[in-house]
Specification:
single chain, 9 strands, globular, binds adenosine-5'-triphosphate, nucleotide-binding
Length: 233
């Protein structure tokens, strides 16, 4: 399967401006790639830099060195490390999705519309987007009586499942999974495993952080140990 995401010699150092410019090197020489149709999981102990790598790929953290190459179209490869903010926004719109456990609640927007929105912005018609949103909410066992309500008052677990539905609904060639199953029950963890399998079958390249050993064993095609990228002392 073709490569969709490739990190070359990536490095990140945090500079603490309020602490006399103290510098905290987190990762260096990060080299790996993710192919279409596979799910790669970042492993390693707490503080090793897994989230920092994911955040650099999504453009939340600046990448200090190296290249983060993503294939947007067969003839368009973009280096996220040097992408302008506008280009990064375009990538988030059509190329890279991010599924986390936390829902950013939008006031007065129903759960159904929160879930349908990423597909609508990718150009799907309203009927298709809402049908897919209903399907995902129902698969993730969000009670139908909640679909027309804004998720602000939902329980933590319900909000999390709305967020997962929102993360999986659109058709991104690259999907970042940031602890998507944290605190889900076994039945809903199994649904997420199935959703990941379906994305693999569609050729989506996924990179994740998953502390849940059982889910990791079921979805990881490869585990990359981030301690290998520890900066030299
Ligand atoms: N915005 C930031 N400013 C300063 N230091 C940061 C920042 N983000 C992360 N770090 C530091 O970088 C190191 C790696 O953090 P990161 O969250 O990437 O690790 P992780 O492997 O994802 O850990 P965990 O498994 O606990 O989530 C930590 O020492 C953390 O304190």
């Amino acid at each position: 399967m073709p490569v969709r995401l490739c990190l070359n010699a990536v490095a990140k150092t945090f500079v603490m401006h309020l602490q006399d410019g103290l510098s905290l090197p987190v990762v260096a020489n990060v080299d790996f790639s993710v192919n279409a149709g596979e799910c790669v999981v970042l492993g390693g102990p707490s503080g090793a830099g897994k989230s920092s790598i994911l955040k650099m790929i999504y453009g939340n953290y600046r990448c200090d060195e190296g290249q983060i190459l993503v294939v947007r179209k067969p003839d368009e490869i973009i280096d996220i490390a040097h992408a302008a903010p506008r280009r990064m926004l375009a990538l988030r719109h059509d190329t890279i999705g991010y599924v986390s456990q936390f829902l950013r609640v939008i006031p007065r927007v129903s759960a159904l519309d929160v879930v349908a929105e990423p597909l609508l912005t990718q150009g799907a018609d309203e009927e298709t987007a809402r049908a897919r949103a209903r399907d995902l909410l129902s698969r993730l066992n969000v009670p139908e009586r909640l679909w027309s309500l804004p998720p602000a008052t939902f329980s933590g677990g319900e909000q999390q499942r709305v967020n997962i539905a929102r993360g999986f609904i659109a058709d991104y060639p690259v999907l970042l999974l940031d602890e998507p199953t944290a605190s889900l029950d076994a039945a809903n963890r199994a649904v997420v495993v199935k959703l990941v399998d379906e994305k693999k079958a569609q050729g989506v390249a996924m990179l994740g952080i998953l502390h849940d050993q059982d889910v990791r064993d079921r979805i990881a095609d490869r585990i990359i140990d981030v301690t290998a990228f520890r900066p030299a002392a």
